[in-house]
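HUMAN: Ready with one sample?

ASSISTANT:
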Amino acid sequence: MKAVDRFLQSQRERKVRAWLKPGARVLDIGCHQGEFLGRLGAAIGPSAGLDPLATPRDSTGYRIIARPFAEPVDFPDLSFDAIILLATLEHIRDKAPLAREARRLLAVGGRLIMTVPSPRVDDIVHTLVRLGLADGMSLEEHHGFKPEDTRAIFEAAGLQLEAHETFQLGLNHLFVFRQPKT
């Protein structure tokens, strides 16, 4: 990862971290090699990361599982206090199964916290890659996803939108959905 990639990643992580409760059990979907879980360290409870390109491992407080997201995920109901996706949703073609699994896996009051880039980001990142300033991970998988479609996908599964904001000059979106109390 190049400096620009790390900077953009740190901005996304900062937005997500603000919504995590101390001791939360976290599922990081699209975790790469588990870097964010590692940085969260003792601030979170027992956690897991999923990524098809990850090297599987067990670390103190979390484990990394090398597999893509697919319904059903091999965890019991209500296993996590938070599910996070950092610039991952646009890589998943069929988003309805993700929304259903998030609803099943989140504890009561748990949060689904995600960042979703604007489609305009693709052109910017392609330019940064051509200039050698960024690596632009898996851009070919973005599928033209529009962030404005996010709310309907997750509300259809029964999650409640708690917050939505843009950051990085409107090029990125933060969405926070909550598992209802009933």
Q: What stands out?
A: The chain is about 25% helix and 25% strand.
